[in-house]
Structures are given as structure tokens and as C-alpha cells.
Amino acid sequence: MFKPIPVAIGLRYLRAKRRNGFISFISLASILGIALGVAALITTLAVMSGFQREIRDRMLQMVAHATVSGYGEPLQDWESAVALARADARVAGAAPYSETETLLSGARKQPAIVRGILPGEEGKVSVLADKLIRGRLDSLTPGSFNIVLGKELAMWLGVEVGDNVVMMTSDVRATPVGAMAQMKRFKVTGLFEAGYNEFDRGVAFVNMRDLQRLQRAGDGVTGVRLRLHDMDLAWDVARDLAGRLGGPYRVSDWTSENANMFRALKMEKTIMAILLSLIIAMGAFNLVSSQVMLVTDKQADIAIMRTLGLTPRAVMQVFMVQGTLIGVIGTLLGVLSGITLTLNLEHILKAVEHAFGVVLLPEDVYYITGLPTELRGEDVVTIALVALAMAFLATLYPAWRAARTPPAEALRYE
């Protein structure tokens, strides 16, 4: 009795049995369509967010959060830079590195980035030692000219631990027969598997001193790599360090170095969200159909309400309330179903694999043993708001049509 009259009538229409059962069926289809779209969108975005997190975490295990490097020339006073970085409370670890693009030659040739490191310091900025599947990182001693390859890179080169590879750099040296590329033979003493194809196939590690000798860089290095307690502060910390060092330096962080990959992942997630939103839109179109049929079915009721003094605006509110409630019910069912499905998705995947005897996510292809998911609250809220907005918009035309119904015309044949 305390409800506004349009709300009370709208709720009454929602609970009452209708003379036309087909209208009820269309309304039920609208609820199920919205619920299905919301659940599918929540689950899909959770899976895509899980894969993005998995890729990011695996990448950040091997790359630094931030890098400060020399601008156009090697960084000479790197010891001071490392000491200054470690004095910063925001920095968890710092280590120097040298890096160059090379052509590695074994049974076959393959371009790769060769990174010179200090084995004793590398553990402060990456987990390379934990990713070794063959050999040991401390085999990269100065003057040994040993090399550690990614598993995929070794496969493409056709080499194993104990074999030799020839490294060819872009530097040239003068010889009696003319200028020739700088080449050096290295012995493979280890293989690593990061679970990230860009590293497993395109990166190799040697001792920093050996690479300095090969590049004739003296004591200079390419730069200093930083690992932070909070990786979101990477750019600010690197910029502050470069400012304290003085002179021109190049500063980069993990987001700028991998900007194209993160941009592609974000675009893929956005496009998938737009496509799956069409399922919600389809449920909203069903809601339009059911409301239009309901307005036609309730012509006499509308005319009686108008003659009793209900304004066109109030009549419009009656049908907007009913259609919006259908959208709310569908959205709530979809949110609950989507969250439940996401939380149990890995168990469902294992059950499907066991029932049909198939492997949906081969480990040798995806480098994972399960289905990563990350249920984000902001995604769920956004999806729910989009579904409610679509349901609300779907009620406008049928409600407007009901408000324009002439009472005399509606009661002529009653």
C-alpha cells in the first residue's frame, strides 16, 4: 500500500498469470537470454584476464621491472648506479647487464638476443636459475665462453648441452681480406624454459665479461636492471634513479618494453566483450517483443486505468517497471551463474576431458597445466550495468506506445 501506483501495478502484472501464454514464454526467453549473455561474458572475461595475468607473471619472472641504460653509449660507472639503486627502499634488487642482437649458428642458424649477466647477481632481478632444465647458471664463468639457451632456441639451432654454437654480432673487424663480422664460438652448458615463447625461442645468456670482451666495450655495460617491491612504480623509480645519476640516460619499464603485446591483449579482450554483448542485446530484443505483445494484450486495462485518472506518464511507468524487473532478474541470474561457472571452470574442464578422452589445453602448446581465471569485481559490475542499461532501453518504446493508447479506441470492441 505504500508503493507508488505505477510500481504496484507493474509488480502485479509481473506476478499475474496472463491470458496469452506465448507472452509469458517470450518474457521467460528474455530473462534466459540476458542471463546467458551475462554469464558467458563474465566467464569469458575472467578466462582472458587469467591468461593475461599468466603471461604477465611469466614474462616478469624473466624481465626487469625497470631499466636504466646508457644513451647511445655503454654505461661506464655501473657500480655506482647499482649501489644507488639498492639504497632506494622501493628497489628489491639491481644488477648490471650487457645485451646485443646476434646470429647464432649450430646445425641451423637463428637470430637471438644475447644477454650478458653476472650469475651471482642475476637472482636479484630474475628467476633464471629456477627455470633451468639442464645445466647450472654458475657455469657462466668469466673467460669460459659458455652459453645458456632457451629450450625452443636450442631446438631450432639443433644443439644440445655440450654442443658448440657460433655467435656472430653486427660488429666488424678489419682482416687482411677485408672487414668481417665478429664471431666467437660458445659452448652450450645449460637450457632454460621460461614458459614464454619470446624468451624460450629468442634469448640466450652468457657471462657479462665474455660479452664485454666480444663487444670491446671495456668495463661498460648496456645498463642496470631493477626489480621493485611494487612493479606499478617502475617508471617513477627508474626516472628518479636516472636523475640522481646525472647525464643522459634511457629509462624504460616493463609496460613500455612490452607495450605492443599488452595493447594487443587489451584489444582482444575488448573485442570479445563487444561480441559477447550481442547475446545480451538479443535478450533485450526479446524483451522488446514481449513488452509490445503485452501492451497489445492489455489495451482494455490501459484504457480503464486512463479513465480512472492515471496519466500517460504513469501508464508508461507501469510497463517500464515490469520490463526493468525482467532485466534485473535476468542480470542477477546471469551474475550468479557466471561467478559460479568461473569458480568451478577448471573442475568442469577436467570432467569434460575425462568424459571424452581429450586434452583441451595441451601443455606443450599453452605451457600451462590448468585453465587460469581471474574474476575481477570491476568486470562483473560493468557487465551487470550494461545488461541493466540494455533492459531499460528495451522497455522505452513499448512503454511509450502504451502511454499513447487512446482509451475510447481501446474500449470500442470490449
Automatic annotation (TrEMBL):
Q: Where in the cell is it found?
A: Cell membrane
Q: Does the keyword Iron-sulfur apply?
A: no
Transmembrane region(s): 22-51, 271-294, 314-336, 380-400
**For the ABC3 transporter permease C-terminal domain, which residue ranges apply?**
274-407
Q: Which GO terms describe its cellular component?
A: plasma membrane protein complex
> Keywords of this protein's UniProt record, alphabetized?
Cell membrane, Lipoprotein, Membrane, Transmembrane, Transmembrane helix, Transport
Query: How is the protein disposed in the membrane?
Result: Multi-pass membrane protein
Q: Which InterPro entries match?
A: ABC3_permease_C, Lipoprotein-release_system, LolCE_TM, MacB_PCD
Q: Which residues form the MacB-like periplasmic core domain?
A: 27-241
Indicate the principal place this protein occupies in or around the cell.
membrane
Keyword Cell membrane recorded: yes
Pfam families, sorted: FtsX, MacB_PCD
Q: Which GO terms describe its biological process?
A: lipoprotein localization to outer membrane; lipoprotein transport
Task: State the family it belongs to.
Answer: Belongs to the ABC-4 integral membrane protein family. LolC/E subfamily.
| NCBIfam families (UniProt xref) | lolCE
Q: What is this protein called?
A: Lipoprotein releasing system transmembrane protein LolC/LolE
